[in-house]
Amino acid sequence: MKGRQHLEKLEGAGFVADISEINMQYTHIKDFAVSRTNFEKMVSLKTQRQYGRIATQYDKWEADRYWRDGLDRETHTKEKITIYLNYLMKEGKSPSTIRTTVAAINWYMKNFLELSQIEFDNLPPVKQTIPNWLEHDEAKKLIENTPYLEDKALIVFLLDTGMRISEALNVKIEHINFAENTVMIEKRKGKYIPQAVPFGEKTKNILIEYIGDRKRGRLFDMNMWKAQRHIKKLGYAILGKKITPHVLRHTKAVALRKAGVSLEDIADYLGHSSLESTRRYARITATHLKQLPQTL
Question: Which H/E stretch holds residue 175?
Answer without folding.
Answer: none
